[in-house]
Structures are given as structure tokens and as C-alpha cells.
Write a structure and sequence with these properties.
Length: 144
């Protein structure tokens, strides 16, 4: 429980929110939320989910045991674009086989982009790379 209480406080402070703001958003009293941060109460799983959504962090971050690593990962996660977060979340649900296939595809795309840059093609030409059109990415993921 100590891990959760520390991480709730760290994340809340990092997001620059007051206990009152968090409690209001979660539809609980400030004193109830304060008890979670003090380790006197333990939220149920649905409230943990709501907290992760409110703070825009994966639920794993609420129970991260290495506080230093948790803070560093959280800072990186907060800097990610919505597309990067979406890709990371999809990756986590893939099987090991599908993850390997995705990594192979990513490496091929990186090699292709590097070749384009080395041959002097402009950045505008890079936007014409395969799988850039809307919906193509979703078709590739469904295949695997």
C-alpha cells in the first residue's frame, strides 16, 4: 500500500493538481482521496482505473516499485504524443509473435526512411512512404 500512496502523490504533484481537484474529478471527497495518499485506505480496482485515466498514465505506474524509475518513465510518458501512447498501448496487448513482427516492420520502415534521406529525397517525399495513408496502419495490425 505504501507504493500506491507514494506514487499517487508523486503523480498528482507532477501533474500539478491539488487533492481537491483530483477528488472532484473522481467524484469522491477530498478526505477520502487524502486517505489513499496517506495509505489509510485502499481504492477498489474501478477507482484505480479512473485514477489512471484521470492522470493519463498506465495503471502499472500506480504500483511502480522503483520510485526513481517510475518518475523517469512517467516524465517520458507525459511527453509522448497521443499516437505514441496509442502505439505503446497496442504493443502491450500483442502476442510475442506479433510483437516480433511489428518490430521487423518498424526496422524495415526505418531502413527505408534512412535510404530516402541518404538519396537526397525531401521530407515531403517521406510523407509518401508506404502505410502513411489513413486506415492502412489499422489494416496491417489486423493482419497479425
Amino acid at each position: 500500500m505504501e507504493i500506491l500512496q507514494n506514487n499517487l502523490q508523486l503523480i498528482r504533484v507532477e501533474k500539478r493538481k491539488s487533492q481537491t481537484q483530483v477528488a472532484h474529478a473522481l467524484h469522491i471527497s477530498r478526505s477520502t482521496y487524502a486517505m489513499y495518499e496517506m495509505g489509510k485506505r485502499l481504492p477498489d480496482i474501478s477507482l484505480l482505473y479512473s485514477m489512471s485515466k484521470y492522470f493519463d498514465v498506465p495503471m502499472e505506474y500506480l504500483y511502480c516499485t522503483d520510485t526513481r524509475r517510475c518518475i523517469e518513465e512517467l516524465k517520458l510518458y507525459l511527453k509522448m504524443s497521443s499516437d505514441e501512447k496509442r502505439l505503446l498501448n497496442m504493443y502491450r496487448f500483442l502476442s510475442d509473435y506479433a510483437r516480433g513482427r511489428l518490430m521487423e516492420r518498424a526496422e524495415l520502415l526505418m531502413d527505408e526512411q534512412e535510404m530516402m534521406l541518404n538519396t537526397g529525397e525531401s521530407r515531403a517525399d517521406l510523407s509518401k512512404a508506404p502505410y502513411r495513408s489513413e486506415g492502412e496502419y489499422d489494416k496491417i495490425i489486423r493482419i497479425y
